[in-house]
Design goal:
Chain A is mostly helical and 301 residues long. Chain A is built from 13 helices and 2 strands. The chains are: A mainly alpha (301), B alpha+beta (224).
């Protein structure tokens, strides 16, 4: 029996029948489907986590002003804020997620997890979690396998691309992946991981992709911070034993259905939502290349 | 059935931001163009089409394509300052945007390269998620993903030439993934684009180059 990550039900069944731990099922999938060795996989995860940590560090130390000017050192501002709305840990989560995502917007090195537009969520959640609970790297790598398993299923059942399913597909998936990782690291079982995923997607459902001027900046950066917060609130509920009423596979089906019926102006085209506002149009004029040639209709290229 | 994704598609790739299609994919198109040209050009004229034409500055696609031409990979942090590095490497570049080339894919780039009288034109598209396709080389249509080692062979249109070339490849126990042949009527030459699943031996490559009816052989590595 091969595991293909077509559904959460299949994942649970595979672990039960084969008597393997959930993250081992993901490891076996990668070995079987991609012919990778265990050593290669662990090394790949270690490298990804290292890049995530570096991104957080860079976002808090280097100048993070994007070419458009819309992103302007937000992570540092949160870190140095005189008011802490929910205490230092929450503040740290927000600035870590912002930091990694700002690095992405400012042409720095990141891990697309699952996409570049959502590249602040996993780093924000994992670095804050590790720092707070002193979790060893090895446990984090196992949690990243759990996250990858969650991502694989969402990709098959719905989508992880903003152009296909809206922002819920990118930041929603990243938050679900991160939430599952938190539950795993703090001792939750597979059904609690599934609850965390289901609750997270319920909170992110329907989010449109409406990037101002088409850039991966507004609202992407702030949404990475809020998605990181939702990952933690969902993990808190799941670990406390709150069950998802709608089973996780059905929640992901709903996400796919919402994505499929979303109008294209809400799918990364920068034609709707925030991207269509008066201010966004003014920003577009400033940041888009205007000096372009328009060909006559019958031009042969 | 479509190929299964890797866990490193979910947690990865490691790349320079902000966008997999507008930054990482564009680096790969530039890198593919450099490989096909065979070296770094002295001058590159780059045209961004359609959706790329207006957004190439905001997404850093301009720096990305130059980085590719300089030989950088998608996770190289020199991408951000590629213009400065181009100056040091004596690579002169010019950009142009064309807004409404309806027959082209929304994210299309054309790169015209020059070096000491040698010229080459490469047309590539960024398909999303960092995936690319090279669609034309000097007007010859092709469809190369850059995910496999690739042979581009220009040969006289003699009988049995394709069978001969494929048997040389087979003798190295190398599988052919895709192959396309493109003929020009005027001088009777054919261009073969062959994606293979691993590199052929250097001696086999040299042998192909020495064949009297073979004009040119280019071995393009995987575009990382």
């Amino acid at each position: 029996m091969d595991i293909l990550f077509d559904s959460f039900e299949e994942w649970a069944k595979y672990c039960e029948v084969q008597k393997v731990l959930p993250h081992i099922a993901v490891l076996e999938y990668e070995m079987k489907q991609k012919n990778r060795t265990k050593e290669e996989i662990w090394a790949g995860l270690a490298r990804a986590f290292e890049v995530m940590r570096e991104a957080v560090k860079t976002g808090l130390s280097d100048d993070m002003r994007s070419r458009s000017g819309m992103i302007d050192n937000g992570a540092k501002r949160v870190k140095n804020a005189s008011v802490s709305v929910l205490g230092e840990n929450f503040q740290q989560l927000v600035y870590n997620a912002l930091a990694a995502k700002e690095v992405n917007s400012c042409m720095g090195r990141i891990v697309a997890a699952p996409t570049a537009g959502a590249s602040g969520i996993m780093p924000g959640v994992l670095t804050t979690l590790q720092n707070l609970h002193k979790i060893p790297n090895e446990k984090i790598y196992e949690a990243m396998l759990i996250s990858a398993g969650i991502g694989l299923i969402i990709e098959r059942k719905a989508s992880i691309a903003g152009a296909v399913g809206g922002c819920q597909a990118e930041t929603g998936t990243a938050a679900a992946m991160a939430s599952g990782a938190v539950v795993y690291c703090l001792g939750g079982d597979l059904s609690q991981i599934f609850d965390a995923v289901a609750i997270t997607i319920q909170c992110m459902l329907g989010l449109i992709c409406d990037p101002v001027a088409g850039l991966v900046e507004v609202p992407c950066v702030v949404r990475n911070a809020s998605a990181a917060a939702i990952a933690f609130s969902s993990a808190q509920m799941a670990l406390a034993g709150l069950k998802t009423v709608i089973p996780v596979d059905e929640v992901i089906d709903a996400m796919g259905e919402v994505g499929a019926s979303m109008e294209s102006k809400y799918k990364e085209t920068a034609l709707g939502g925030l991207a269509a506002t008066k201010t966004a149009k003014m920003i577009e004029k400033r940041v888009l290349v205007s000096d372009i040639e328009i060909l006559p209709d019958d031009t042969q290229l | 059935m479509a190929e299964r994704s890797s866990i490193f598609d979910m947690i990865g790739p490691v790349m320079i931001g902000p966008s997999s299609s507008h930054t990482a994919g564009v680096v790969r198109i530039g890198l593919a163009a450099r490989y096909i040209f065979g070296e770094q050009p002295d001058v590159a004229n780059i045209t961004f089409y359609n959706s790329f034409a207006t957004t190439y500055e905001g997404h850093g696609s301009d720096r990305a394509v130059i980085a590719g031409l300089l030989g950088y990979a998608t996770d190289d942090d020199r991408i951000k300052n590629a213009f400065d590095h181009a100056k040091e490497a004596h690579l002169e570049f010019h950009f142009k945007g064309v807004g409404n080339a309806g027959i082209y894919h929304p994210n299309t780039i054309k790169i015209n390269m020059e070096k000491q009288g040698k010229t080459l034109e490469v047309l590539g598209i960024s398909r999303g998620g960092g995936l690319i396709a090279i669609r034309e080389i000097d007007g010859f249509s092709c469809n190369l993903s850059g995910q496999y080692p690739t042979l581009i062979i220009e040969a006289g249109d003699v009988k049995g030439s394709i069978a001969f070339i494929t048997s040389v490849i087979a003798n190295d126990s190398v599988n052919i993934g895709t192959m396309s042949v493109n003929r020009t009527a005027k001088n009777g030459t054919a261009r073969l684009f062959i994606e293979i699943d691993s590199e052929i031996k250097p001696i086999s490559l040299e042998y192909l180059k020495q064949l009297s009816w073979v004009h040119e052989v280019k071995a393009i590595p995987v575009v990382t």
